[in-house]
Amino acid sequence: MLEAVIEERIGPAPEASAWREFWQAYSQSRGALIGLALVIALILLAVFADVVSPHPPNEQYREFTLTPPAWHQGGTANFMLGTDPVGRDMLSRLIHGTRLSLLIGLISVTISLSLGVVLGLLAGYFRGLLETTIMRVMDVMLALPSLLLAIAVVAILGPGLINAMYAIAIVLLPHYVRLTRAAVLAETGKEYVASSRIAGAGPIRLMFSTILPNCVAPLIVQATLGFSSAILDAAALGFLGLGAQPPTPEWGSMLAGALEFIQRASWVVTFPGLAILITVLAFNLMGDGLRDALDPKLKR
Amino acid sequence: MALLEIEGLTVEFGSVAAPLIAVDNVDLTMEAGEIVGCVGESGSGKSVTALALMGLVDFPGRVRAKRMSFDGRDLLGLSDAGRRALVGKDIAMIFQDPLASLNPCFTVAFQLTETMRIHGTDAARRSAKRRRDRALELLQQVEIPDAATRLGAFPHQLSGGMAQRVMIAMAIACNPRLLIADEPTTALDVTVQAQVLELLVRLQHERGMALLLITHDLAVVAETVQRVMVMYAGQQVETGPVPAIFEAPEHPYTQALLAALPEHNLERSRLKAIPGIVPGQFDRPVGCLLSPRCDYALERCHRDQPLLEGPEGRKVRCHFPLDPAGYPTGGWKAESQAQLPAETPASGT
Fold first, then answer.
1. Which of A73, A90, A151, B242 could disulfide-pair with A81, CB 3.0 to 4.6 Å?
2. 193-232 in A: which are within 8 Å (CB) of B?
3. Contact A202 B100 (CB under 8 A)
């Protein structure tokens, strides 16, 4: 009986305790939980887009162009959120757009995170001229407005979804480099790094397997928040016609394509906008929650 | 041949024109299986000496030496890869703060086996099972209770004494022939200090490895080491065997350090302290570095730097070395009475 109580108070095996501690800190905030739930829902939607969506995303129902949503007068249950100017089902396109948006977020964040971590590690570990060079280039990139820089990169590479991802990755890069470098600077001076050097670890091992694991907490947070800005930037590029090209059901280009109908058929603009809003909000909420849970400075 | 031979080791930081001399012309010879103590107050260059020996002084710092060899191999001319193959295997080091010296991200088992994966025997390099067995064996050797469970523990789950034991286990994992312990007991409380020290000496004895014990705790030195070098402001001021050096210190600094021990002050109400602090980069005296703080300093001390002189194994850097009764010799009395700048013919030991 007593053992059971103690077991309950202290918690079970020590291996699980790190996750348990993390989850306890994370679930403190309701916003973080809502964000996590939304993100999971979005991921499920993206994965099962073909199953969930009622119509193929690019199928044009010519007799149903600009049908209003089901709850409006003249709407039909067949097209829950109405149709766009060429008769494609809005709901299906939005669901398929989730897939694209998450993919854009994932790929751009992965590219810029891996590049940024490597550059940041090099700058923070080797210091000197290398650090100055890397950090000043990053400062120049930060000085330009992010969308402008993305547009410039797309203008060089040519419009398209893949190039938009590269452009966004480049725009996000300085954040990761700076974050990694700062964390590496703080960790490099610690004794365990010296003790690892004394054990005969070379610079590569020191950088990637000794120092890097101790710097991941802020990077996880930044990557989550970077997800939302990647999605936002991709939508902006799509809106400007520099990202996904029609008929790809990308939210930004859906907005752009339906802009002229905003007076007559508000739903064609509202829903893609709402989708972007919800996704960005979900990732931001999750990122904030992660930061609160992972950053020891913010812990009570 | 001696295991470790260092001659004229100098470490400087800062600009070439006005360098901060952290270590000044230090000589050290260690035989296999010998315990040597290195004492001195904070800032006297003890740790930097060890770091230079391990090749860990980075770019702004400059290391020079007439000779620095380990087991006949030249440490100065070693390439980075060659140095990495040597240190960690044949030379190991443990630090002052055990909790900071363990990587917070990994378990004890991982950190223990990591070194073995690189430096270990062929069998250990190949088999993860064997490495784990060895890690367990090491933890048992350093007397960690419930060693099997501790293998899976993260550093933050260990106490300071336990973490220091893990550090020692890591250091001895590859059977080093020289272990440098940089203030191994400073961060621990007194009872644990004694245990850790006892453990170090036992391991040293069992394995016949040489042990360089860096500390500012003279009690630790008196109990454990065979030979001591006393450092002050980057210089060796006195070297000698224990207990002779404690029974009859020849350098005023050693005498003052001993006088500052509570154990030596049973009859006095106030502890004797050494006034002032170790000179820094900009207030380095012209003459003897201790002269501003020395009870016996005379004109000559402020003017000329004394040399490290004396018979092999018992050297002292002082114009007026102390006699066994604790009084300065070498014509100190006459000179202090005269207080004249004129050179006296009598000098040295």
1. A90
2. 194-202, 210, 213-214
3. no
